[in-house]
Write a structure and sequence with these properties.
heterodimer, A: mainly beta, six-stranded mixed beta sheet, five-stranded antiparallel beta sheet, 11 strands, B: seven-stranded mixed beta sheet, four-stranded antiparallel beta sheet, 1 helix, globular
């Protein structure tokens, strides 16, 4: 069974204080690793897909990287509007469903 | 493009009662998913439809949960009878087809229905 573990559970940052979120995964045949952002009371919003070790994707202050066992989401010089829960999910070669981690809740203080 | 619509937004019921949730996916999206998100956890897939047919319902508690997708468009998820542990947010998502998930577009989620069972 696919397993996704995210750390830390919660992260409190000062505005401008860069940091990284971790997503460790176990999957039989990775067909994609996905990052989503979830705001309170809303559904997850798609950010990135990564497919192979060494791949990187960027969007504004966010940068996602992938190794064979984990992915990192780097937040550079965060702003209060980056406050959200960030979810990591994987898709295996066996089926089409996404298996999600529990998420990291990021709070950025002005 | 209109997003995934879900209703109601909130529902409070007593245990052993029944409840139904409705989802209208993005127009043209053949694949529809229902996820359950318990507070503090990531979403867990309950059922996946491809057009009218069920692709994966392995994690759906079939003794109390049922789902259908009429004419390959709207979908309803029903719980009967509800238990306290069913308290969660029920998320509906859609995608063009499973292949586009592989191409990196991900799913588009609705805002969910928050169910509280008391």
């Amino acid at each position: 069974e696919d397993q996704v573990t995210q750390s830390p559970e919660a992260l409190r940052l000062q505005e401008g204080e860069s940091s990284s979120l971790n997503c460790s995964y176990t999957v039989s045949g990775l067909r994609g690793l996905f990052w989503y952002r979830q705001d309170p009371g809303k559904g997850p919003e798609f950010l990135f897909t990564l497919y192979s070790a060494g791949e990187e994707k960027e969007k504004e202050r966010l940068k996602a990287t992938l190794t064979k066992k984990e992915s990192f989401l780097h937040i550079t010089a965060p702003k209060p509007e980056d406050s959200a829960t960030y979810l990591c999910a994987v898709r295996s070669s066996n089926d089409y469903k996404l298996s999600f981690g529990a998420g990291t809740t990021v709070t950025v203080r002005a | 493009e209109a997003g995934v619509a879900q209703s109601p937004r909130y529902k409070i019921i007593e245990k052993r009662q029944s409840v139904a949730f409705w989802c209208n996916p993005i127009s043209g999206h053949a694949t529809l998913y229902w996820y359950q998100q318990i507070l503090g956890q990531g979403p867990k897939l309950l059922i996946q439809f491809q057009n009218n047919g069920v692709v994966d319902d392995s994690q759906l508690p079939k003794d109390r949960f049922s789902a259908e997708r009429l004419k390959g468009v709207d979908s309803t998820l029903k719980i009967q009878p509800a238990k306290l542990e069913d308290s969660a947010v029920y998320l509906c998502a859609s995608s063009l087809d499973p292949g586009t998930v592989s191409l990196g577009y991900g799913y588009t989620f609705g805002s969910g229905t928050r169910l509280t069972v008391v």
